[in-house]
Amino acid sequence: MKKKIVFICTGNTCRSPMAEAILRKALKEHGLADQYEAASAGLSVAYESGANPKSLQVCRDNGIDLSEHRARQADEAMLWDAYMILTMTQAHRQEILFHFPETDKRVSTLRAYSFSLKPEEYSDISDPYGGDLALYAKIFIEIKDCINRMMQKLIHTDIQEEI
After folding, report:
1. Which residue ranges make up each domain of the chain?
2. How far apart are CA 147 and CA 139, in angstroms?
3. CA 114, CA 73: separation in Å to the nearest integer?
4. Suppose 9 and one of 40, 67, 88, 129 were both cysteines; which one would form an S-S bond, judging by CB atoms 3.0 to 4.6 Å apart?
5. 94: enclosing H helix or E strand
6. Using one digit for the tens of pLDDT, what is the confidence trace for 98-149?
C-alpha cells in the first residue's frame, strides 16, 4: 500500500496543487512512485474549480501539467489514512489539529518538515492568490525547494526501512 502525502492550503487552487504536482514528478524521477502518492486539498474550498491560471502557467513553464486538477475540501477520510499531512502555513496546521486532533503526529508545515524546523518557528509559504505571475513563480520555487529537501528525507527513510 502506498503512503499518502497530503498537501493542504486554503482553496486548493494555488499552493497545494503545485506541491502535489511537484512531488508527483519527483517521486517518478526518484523511482518512489510505487511507494508514495501525492494528494492535495483545501480548508475552504467553495467549489471544484481547476487550478488557478497562474499556477497552471508556472507549472507548465516547469514541465508540469496541472490541467486535470480539481479543488477538493479536506475531510476526515482523506486525512485519516494520510501518512503525512503538510500544510502551507501554521494557521492551516492549527486548523487541521483543531478539527482532526488525531493527526498531531502526522501534520507539519511543508517548510518546517523539509528544513527540520521546530513547530513554533516561522515556516509559512505565502499565498500568491491575486499576485502577478512573478509571485507565483517565486512561490513555485519555494515549494520545489522544500520538496527537493523532503525527497532526501523520503529516500533516506526508505533506505532505513529496508535495513
Report:
1. 3-162
2. 12
3. 24
4. 88
5. helix 90-99
6. 999 999 999 999 999 999 887 667 789 999 999 999 999 999 999 999 999 9
Exposure class string for 41-74: b at 16+ Cβ within 10 A, else e: bbbebeeeeebbebbbbbbeeeebebeebebbeb
Q: What is the DSSP letter of 5?
A: E
**What's CA 120's distance to the chain center, in Å?**
19
Q: What's the pTM? A: 0.94
N-terminal to C-terminal alpha carbon distance within the chain: 19
Neighbours of 130 (CB within 10 A): 9
| pLDDT, tens digit, 9 for 90 and up, residues 43-96 | 999 888 999 999 999 999 999 999 999 999 999 999 999 999 999 999 999 999
Catalytic residues: 9, 15, 127
d(CA 18, CA 28): 16
Closest CA to 87 of 50, 58, 123: 123
Listed in sequence order, the residues at least 6 apart from 97 whose beta carbon sits closer than 8 Å to its beta carbon are 103, 104, 107
CATH superfamily of 3-162: Response regulator (3.40.50.2300)
Cα dist from 43 to 7, 19, 23, 47, 80, whole Å: 11, 16, 20, 12, 15
